[in-house]
Write a structure and sequence with these properties.
Layout (H helix, E strand, L loop, with lengths): L6 H10 L2 H4 L12 E3 L2 H6 L8 E5 L5 E6 L10 E3 L4 E4 H4 L11 E2 L6 E3 L2 E2 L3 E11 L3 H6 L2 E11 L4 E5 L2 H11 L14 H11 L8
Antiparallel strand pairs: 1-4, 2-3, 3-7, 4-5, 5-7, 6-9, 8-9, 9-10, 10-11
Length: about 210
């Protein structure tokens, strides 16, 4: 059987830019009922421990959200929260459940902020976050300066792990386990975000944007 061709999909993403991708799932109801998911166990069961009203405010020029309760008090502890449409997962707690095969670099922030799910599927949730990596040249490395790049992150309900797509082999590792029918060929070591998004569109069977 011929494997799906991703060239047209990738061209579509490059043509229309990145902002539309982050809106791809805004109008699709979440499979995670509204409420608080105190631990990853609650998220795996898709069962909130209690209903909870909250507001989400996106930090300026970033992917992070500050969540507040009805009394305008910052929410800091739950693993995840859902408003019935969008799912938010604690950035710092994601790091405790990263697939060891892709656990390279460090996330941009470890404060009490949350990432909003970009795509929610049955058993998988896709996010994007900034990760640091050492400077590529010798002088930059000596100075201790690091650069950060936006990378894809996917949660698997079955493995209870988050896979970070930083290198080409990270994406191939995920595909080999979860979607061997997909075709992804690249000779580059570093993974381009557009390549990740292209594969994710195929993986989640997205063929149009939702505004």
């Amino acid at each position: 059987m011929k494997k799906p061709c991703l060239n047209k999909t990738l061209a579509f993403i490059i043509l229309f830019g990145t902002n539309q991708f982050t809106k791809a799932n805004d109008s699709i109801p979440s499979i995670y009922p509204s409420g608080v998911y105190a631990t990853i166990d609650d998220l795996v069961k898709r069962t909130p421990v209690k209903d909870y009203s909250f507001t989400a405010e996106q930090s300026f020029n970033s992917n992070y959200y500050k969540l507040k309760d009805i009394n305008n008090v910052r929410i800091k502890k739950p693993f995840a929260l859902s408003d019935g449409n969008s799912l938010f997962v604690h950035v710092k707690k994601i790091n405790h459940h990263v697939d060891e095969e892709t656990n390279r670099g460090r996330q941009d922030r470890f404060g009490n902020v949350y990432l909003k799910a970009i795509i929610i599927g049955d058993g998988y949730v896709y996010f994007e976050n900034y990760f640091y990596r050492p400077g590529s040249d010798f002088l930059t490395a000596l100075s201790g300066v690091s650069t950060k790049h936006l990378q894809g992150v996917i949660y698997s309900e079955k493995t209870r792990k988050f896979t970070v797509f930083r290198l080409t082999k990270d994406l191939k590792h995920f595909i080999n386990i979860h979607a061997p029918h997909l075709d992804f060929e690249s000779t580059k070591r570093r993974l381009e975000l557009g390549e990740t998004r292209s594969i994710m569109m195929e993986f989640f069977k997205i063929n149009r944007w939702h505004y």
